[in-house]
Write a structure and sequence with these properties.
Layout: E1 3-7, E2 10-12, E3 18-25, E4 32-39, E5 46-52, E6 58-60, E7 68-73, E8 78-83, E9 92-100, H1 112-117, E10 125-126, E11 130-134
Parallel strand pairs: 2-11
Antiparallel strand pairs: 1-3, 3-8, 4-5, 4-9, 5-6, 7-8, 9-10, 9-11
């Protein structure tokens, strides 16, 4: 069964840290671009960080640069999102998604990993999400 499963969310105080995991099963993340997206109540989905397993490129939204770090463990077929210095505005459901980089039609002027984070492609697979709540 092909699926992405997120874990690691929870309640954390402002300034705290979390490590989210996105485990893939039923397919290999090789040659995939994996993105972390978040959606807060009443707000649009935002791509916060993306990673290309094809060329190693990363992309971060301006709102999270310097605080979020995306990484991949190919042996575990898992992508991680390290979140530091959490702020109340980081509260959201965080979901991971994956799309095959080899099948993407290039978007002029930006890298594929950036285009994924900017929601310019339909993703092949989505996880169900994990809730991150930042509150004192």
């Amino acid at each position: 069964q092909v699926q992405l499963v997120e874990s690691g969310g929870g309640l954390v105080q402002p300034g705290g840290s979390l490590r989210l995991s996105c485990a893939a099963s039923g397919f290999s993340l090789d040659n995939y671009i994996i993105g972390w997206f978040r959606q807060a109540p009443g707000q649009e989905r935002e791509g916060v960080s993306c990673f290309s397993n094809r060329d190693g490129r990363t992309y971060y939204a301006d709102s999270v640069k310097g605080r979020f770090t995306i990484s991949s463990d190919n042996a575990k077929n898992t992508v991680f999102l390290e979140i530091n210095n959490l702020k109340p505005e980081d509260t959201a459901v965080y979901s991971c998604a994956a799309t095959n980089a080899r099948a993407l039609v290039p978007v002029r002027g930006i890298t594929p990993v950036q285009a994924v984070c900017q929601d310019l492609y339909d993703m092949d697979y989505w996880g169900k999400g994990t809730l991150v709540t930042v509150s004192s």
